[in-house]
Every structure is written in C-alpha cells, then in structure tokens.
Design brief:
The chain is an alpha/beta fold. It has helices at 46-52, 90-103, 108-124, 138-150, 174-188, 208-220, 234-243, 252-255, 274-283, 291-296, 304-309, 328-341, 348-362, 389-395, 401-411, and strands at residues 4-14, 27-36, 39-44, 57-68, 70-76, 127-133, 155-158, 160-161, 194-200, 225-230, 264-268, 286-289, 313-316, 380-383, 417-422, 425-426. The chain folds into two domains: 4-69 and 371-426, Urease, subunit C, domain 1 (Roll), CATH 2.30.40.10; 70-362, TIM Barrel (Alpha-Beta Barrel), CATH 3.20.20.140. Helix 9 (274-283) links the parallel strand 11 and strand 12 (286-289). The longest helix has 17 residues, at 108-124. The structure holds guanine and zinc ion (ZN).
Length: 427
C-alpha cells in the first residue's frame, strides 16, 4: 500500500488560463487533496477524501494556501554566488561578474557545492522545478542533475555553449559543443525526472558554425528543449546586428540555423520587432519573462499584455543571478510592477498562473507539473498569508482570497513558504 497523505487547506488550482476572460473564473478552490506515493491522487472536499482514504495521514493547514510548486523557466544556477552584483548593464555585467564566476566551475567540487546550495535556496523559496543554464563545463551539468536526482526533483539544464566573445577557459568549439552536449543528453535526458536542454548561450557568443551544430543536434533530438537569450538589451541587439550583418533581426540568427522551434525557450524577449513576434507565435515558441533581471540589469519592460493577447506561450523566471532574487513571489511582484509601468497591471490569479502553469507550459511539462489535479506529480507549496507583521496586518482586512494573497505576492519571501513537497515528499 502506497503512503498516503491528506492535506487540508485552501487548495488553489487553475481550470483555465486567467488571461482568457475573467481571471477568477479560471481558478478553482478545494478543501483537501490526497498525495499517494508521488502523485496527487484526489482533490475535493475534506469529508469525501477522509472517507475515501481512511488510512491517510492528515495534515491540516487551516487557512494556508496550497498551490502547485513554483516553476522557474529561466535561471543560471552557476550565478548563485554572484547574485546582486552592482552597477553594470548586460555586456559589462557578463564580462565583469558572470564570466569570472562561471570560470570557477572548471572545479567540479565547486560545481557540486553551488548546485546543492542553489537547490537548497530555491526549495526554501517554494520553487520545485527550474530550467537552468549550466556553464560550458560538462561537469557542471553532471553536478546539477546529480543534485536534483538525489532530491527527486524535476529539472532541466544543459551545457552552455560559447565559442567566441568569451574569455579563454570559457570557450568550446562548434565540434566540442556538439559532441559534449550529445554525450550529456544521452546520459541524462529522460532519466528519472531530468530533461536536457540544448543551450547556446546567445548568438553573440556563438559562431555561425556553432549555431548550426546546435541546430543539427536539436534536429536529431527534437524531444529536447532548446534554451537561449533573445533581445534583452538594445546594446546587445546592435552587437548582434554587427556580428550577423546578413540577419534580418536577432531572432533570424537562431531561425537561420535551425534554432527556432516550438520547444525553444527564448529568455527576455523584450525589444522584439513585428517579424520576430510573428515568427515566434507561428512556432508557438516560449518567451520567458524575467522581471527582476530586466529592472536590475536595466533591460526594459516586457510586453506581457500585448504578447498574451497575441496568443504567445509565456513563462516566468528569476534569471538568477541577473535577476536579483531566488523567489518566485518576488518575481511575481516585479512582473506586477512592470505591468503597472506599462499600464496593464496583472491580477493575482494571473501572476500565480504564470509562476506555475505558465512556466510549466513553457517547458512543455504542464501535463505533469504546474497545477493541482488528480494524476499530476505531487510538487506543492504551502503559503502562509500572514508570514510577517507587515503582511498579516494587511491580509487581515482582506475581503476575499485574492485580496488576502496579494500582499504575500508583493511582500512575501521564504518566510511565507511553510512547507514544500517535492515528488510526494515533504522537505
Ligand atoms: N545573455 C547572455 N548570457 C546571459 C546571462 O547569463 N544573463 C542574462 N541576464 N543575460 C544573458
Ligand atoms: Zn539568462
């Protein structure tokens, strides 16, 4: 008989996208759920589930909110220890802070230490799945997958490929990037809950030969995700134009070499031209919004409302350590603030959807994670809506769940995360 646990609380799930019509109507509230082994076996009223699962252990969370674990669709776990580095914009930030830190991952013991530190920090913040860049070192991929595997965690990563415009020691070649990525993919993709993403960092750090090699590898393994960066800063876009004089636009530097597809994840995607928007939409490619990064590095304001209205597939992400937080709560707050600056504030249900279902859809994993429903994997987060005096004095006077949860989205941190379940196990 599988171990069964009955969780009682305010279970919040999504029956539809809160970006299609009334956001609240897209949500569902239940009293209880049952975890059996590593799966959510049932969702419903407490009395019904108690009767159906009499031997289940009961954990009563009172009026805490139980949600699917957060899904972070774009991060750099190797940038954990250099998060919040001051005063630079993208290109200088990469050269000054990022590349020297990534160089340290030549030491596999350091890679293991940071992979575990990163997974500890993010679990404390309620993030149960992430899609991470590694470094160019194959051992950094091994370190991340090994750490996640031992925790039973569903994660994505891939060797970050760069064969130009990066320092000695952080460059591979078109051939070695292809060969090493292929070996890692064969070793890890589909093992337990682990998935491989083919990972050219961004077109300025890859030659055409390397982009072609990555495109060829993706064509051989179309079930893999492909992750990269797109149109984050205007200086970067000018640089791409000078490096690829024949390209129609930034996206074309991927599209021309087989790197535009439905299982592609394009981080940032802020300063898009109409042709790029059209092509991304035609492919149903995923755009990943990284709001704390976009304000921290000074990149720009993602057009969430316009891109959603056009039907784009969109995920939400910290972009740690360009992003300034490990917390998806803080990330939702930043997304809200960017929406405000654009005159299109998001509803709490839309923010929570982006951090769960939206990011799971971006990773093509919404069949197994990102929501609470029978048959889904039991990755859950339990939120305390009164985790600090400042939050509780505001949520106390809320007239409904949405008003009660919004102060935690705006002001909450790891203190709001009461409990995290990963693959049916409480951490
Ligand atoms: N563009 C290329 N590499 C990176 C990175 O590591 N972080 C961010 N924010 N943008 C990038
Ligand atoms: Zn990034």
């Amino acid at each position: 008989m599988a171990m069964q646990t009955l969780l009682k609380g305010r279970i919040l799930s999504f029956s539809n996208s809160p970006f299609d019509g009334d956001p609240v109507a897209a949500t569902q509230q239940d009293e209880a759920l049952v975890i059996s082994d590593h799966i959510i076996a049932a969702v419903g009223s407490f009395d019904d589930l108690r009767a159906a699962y009499p031997q289940a252990d009961v954990i009563d969370h009172g009026n805490r909110v139980i949600l699917a674990g957060f899904v972070d669709a774009h991060v750099h776990f190797p940038q954990t220890a250099m998060i919040a580095s001051w005063g630079k914009r993208l290109i200088d930030w990469l050269n000054t802070y990022t590349f020297p830190e990534e160089m340290r991952f030549a030491d596999s013991a350091y890679a293991e230490e940071i992979a575990n530190r990163y997974l500890d920090l993010t679990a404390a913040h309620g993030t149960t799945t992430m899609c991470s860049f590694a470094t160019i070192h194959p051992a950094s991929v091994d370190a991340f997958f090994t750490a996640a595997q031992s925790r039973g965690q569903r994660v994505v990563t891939g060797k970050t490929c760069m064969d130009r415009n990066a320092p000695e020691g952080l460059r591979d070649t078109a051939q070695s990037a292809y060969d090493q990525s292929k070996v890692l993919l064969g070793k890890w993709h589909g093992v337990d809950r682990l998935s491989y993403a083919i990972t050219p960092r961004f077109s300025p750090t890859s030659t055409i030969e390397q982009l072609e090699a990555m495109g060829a590898l993706w064509a051989e393994h179309p079930d893999c995700l492909m992750q990269t960066h797109l149109s984050e800063q205007t200086d970067e876009i000018e640089w791409v134009k000078s490096l690829f004089p024949d390209a129609r636009d930034y996206l074309d530097t991927y599209e021309s070499y087989g790197l535009l597809g439905g299982r592609g994840l394009y981080g940032h995607a802020i300063h898009l031209e109409q042709r790029e928007r059209d092509r991304l939409r035609e492919h149903d490619a995923a755009l990943v919004h990284c709001p704390t990064s976009n304000t921290f590095i000074g990149s720009g304001l993602f057009d969430m409302a316009g891109l959603m209205a056009d039907g784009h597939r969109i995920g939400l992400a910290t972009d740690t350590g360009g992003g300034s937080s490990f917390s998806m709560l803080r990330t939702m707050a930043a997304a809200y603030e960017i929406g405000q600056l654009r005159g299109t504030p998001m509803h709490a249900a839309q923010l929570l959807w982006l951090a769960t279902v939206g990011s799971a859809r971006a990773l093509h994993m919404d069949d197994v994670i990102g929501n609470i429903a029978p048959g889904k994997e039991a990755d859950l987060v339990v939120l305390d809506l009164a985790s600090t005096p400042a939050i509780s004095q505001r949520s106390d006077r809320a007239s409904d769940l949405w008003e009660a949860i919004f102060p935690t989205i705006m002001m909450g941190d790891d203190r709001a995360i009461t409990e995290v379940w990963i693959n049916g196990k409480r951490r």
